[in-house]
Amino acid sequence: MNKYGSIIIKDLFYSYPDGTQALQGINLIIHPQESVALIGANGAGKSTLLMNLNGTLLPHSGTVQIDNHVVTKKELTEIRKKVGMVFQNTDDQLFMPSVFDDITFGPLNLGYSPEKTKQIAFDIMTELEILELQKRPPYKLSGGEKRKVAIATILAMSPDILVFDEPTSNLDIKNRRNVINIMQNINQTLLVSSHDLEFLLEVCQRCVIIDQGKVVADGEIRKILGDEELLQAYHQEKPHSLIPHHHD
To answer: Are 192 and 161 in contact (CB under 8 A)?
Structure first.
């Protein structure tokens, strides 16, 4: 059992330069290997929270602790080894001349040998069924292919925590199913922000609702997503699969 991959967030506040209070006292504990869905209306603070986990943004007050490391400027190298983030816009993530270069970039930076790196890349490309893309430049890939490559670049570094921001946005049904399969097989701690509640039901065990920068609900996912009143209060719709169907 992997004991790594815990997230402890205490009284986390964050405001943007224009004065927008994005996070207002978030408290949250996520245990190693838990899979947690993060939902809330646009502007609720979900992406801001995710970016505070890997040091893209740094807390204004309060703390984010990843295992025994507190997220600060000084700890960024360690934090980024532990927390892998797949951004909503894959173009923010893919910048090398070829898919192979993008996937090997992380492990080489972590000091892995070229041989080991090549093996890691090969294994992941095989697993994600993107081996035939390895020589292609990322800008020539479809949205679904880019998403899989972005996931591969993070998996290649085998972080203890994987963070996904809207992983199914703009994907067709086949690619969405691919992403679900990949995520169901992840053994690390998983934190996923998405508006696609059916997708979250398939990949997460726990669900946290954020509203105006605060945690307003936290519990077992089927219980939270089955609570119509609660969802309506925070501008969410009950997933179709949880609505009882009456047969004549």
So the answer is: no
What are 10-38's pLDDT values in tens digits? Answer: 999 999 999 889 999 999 999 999 999 99
The predicted model scores a pTM of 0.90
Residue whose entry in the numeric block shows the structure tokens 């330069």? 17
Identify the CATH number of the domain defined by range 7-236.
3.40.50.300
Q: Write out pLDDT tens, residues 1-11.
A: 557 999 999 99
- Please report where in the chains the tokens 């993107």 appear, as a residue: 130
User: 3-state SS string over the chain?
Assistant: CCCCCCEEEEEEEEECCCCCEEEEEEEEEECCCCEEEEECCCCCCHHHHHHHHCCCCCCCEEEEEECCEECCHHHHHHHHHHEEEECCCHHHCCCCCCHHHHHHHHHHHCCCCHHHHHHHHHHHHHHCCCHHHCCCCHHHCCHHHHHHHHHHHHHCCCCCEEEEECCCCCCCHHHHHHHHHHHHCCCCEEEEECCCHHHHHHHCCEEEEEECCEEEEEEEHHHHHCCHHHHHHCCCCCCHHHCCCCCC
Tokens of 215: 């945690």
Tokens of 35: 């899979």
**pLDDT digit string (tens) for 169-210?**
888 898 889 889 989 988 899 999 999 999 999 999 999 999
Residue pLDDT, tens place only, 114-167? 999 999 999 999 988 899 999 999 999 988 899 999 999 999 999 999 999 999
Residues 194 and 46: their CA atoms lie apart, in Å, by 9
> Identity (one letter) of the amino acid at 31?
H
